[in-house]
Design a protein that fits this description.
The chain has 257 residues and is of the alpha/beta class. The chain has one domain (6-256): Metallo-dependent phosphatases (Purple Acid Phosphatase, chain A, domain 2). The chain has helices at residues 23-37, 57-67, 88-95, 129-137, 168-177; strands at 6-11, 43-48, 74-77, 100-103, 107-111, 143-147, 182-185, 192-196, 199-203, 219-225, 229-236, 241-248. Strands 3-2-1-10-11-12 form a six-stranded mixed β-sheet, with no helix packed on it. α1 packs parallel to α2 and α2 (57-67) packs parallel to α3 (88-95). The radius of gyration is 17 Å and the shape is globular.
Length: 257
């Protein structure tokens, strides 16, 4: 692996308010990320949805109380649990827009809200396709990353498939034409990586939910991006780390630079 130029702490499916999920555990993990971020290259905290269990105001306030004042740059988008009970209203009031973009010298990140009110399935929507294409079209040599809550490709060991993004084929086509390098998501509570058409698709596990599958554990992911490749390291709730996967990054054609 070459020299790291971007470090992303990726967490998802916290489920504040769910039975067995302790706010103190969430706070300890966020504190540990902040400490670790002081010693890595260009840190970013990315949270890909299901912040809450039922989208309730008190759950959102509990979540916001933990991340408020964090010194690490942060991008947060909602998941299907956050849209329950019309929770999008609370999300926007406490955490800002549901679709977000982030850019620095190394990456161009488009973070999409794939959730809909009271619907566990995912959907991005064709009204956003041109916006996504235009955003990545201006990224030049930066690593192009698309983030959302739901998965675009089914994840093994998660049971019968029924929540993949409804317009996943169209979204994949848009991302491929836009030379997107990495897709990051949560939702399935199981870490996994696919490589499709030189596009890395990574699903992180659940941060704190007890609804884990098989031998899977509660984790977040340390993502290190270099000029040529990306590395995914699982960080357990206890703080122990283990390498999960590594993949080369797509080489951008000259016409896209």
């Amino acid at each position: 692996m070459g020299e790291t130029k971007k470090t992303i702490f990726h967490m998802s499916d916290i489920h504040v308010g769910e039975d067995g999920v302790e706010t103190d555990d969430f706070r300890q993990i966020v504190d540990s990320i902040e400490k670790r971020a002081a010693h890595v290259t260009s840190p970013l905290l990315l949270i890909t949805g299901d912040l809450t269990a039922e989208g309730l105001r008190e759950e959102y306030e509990e979540f916001a109380g933990v991340v408020e004042g964090l010194s690490v740059p942060m991008v947060v988008i909602p998941g299907n649990h956050d849209e329950r009970n019309y929770g999008a209203v609370h999300f926007e009031e406490l955490l800002g827009e549901r679709f977000k973009t982030y850019e620095d010298d190394s990456i161009a990140l488009y973070a999409a809200d794939s959730a809909e009110p009271d619907n566990d399935a995912g959907h991005v929507g064709r009204t956003k396709y041109e916006e996504i294409s235009d955003f990545f079209g201006q990224a030049k040599e930066k690593v192009r990353i698309f983030a959302l809550h739901h998965h675009l490709i089914p994840v093994p060991h998660t049971g019968r498939e029924h929540n993949v993004v409804e317009d996943s084929g169209a979204v994949l086509g848009v991302l491929d034409l836009a030379n997107c390098s990495i897709v990051l998501n949560g939702h399935r509570h199981v870490p996994w990586m696919w490589n499709l058409n030189n596009m890395v698709h990574y699903t992180t596990g659940t941060l704190l939910s007890r609804r884990i599958r098989g031998a899977t554990i509660q984790v977040h992911t340390l993502i290190e991006i270099s000029e040529d490749d990306v590395t995914f390291t699982l960080i357990e709730k206890t703080g122990s780390a283990s390498l999960f996967s590594r993949s080369e990054l797509r080489v951008l054609p000259r016409s896209s630079l």
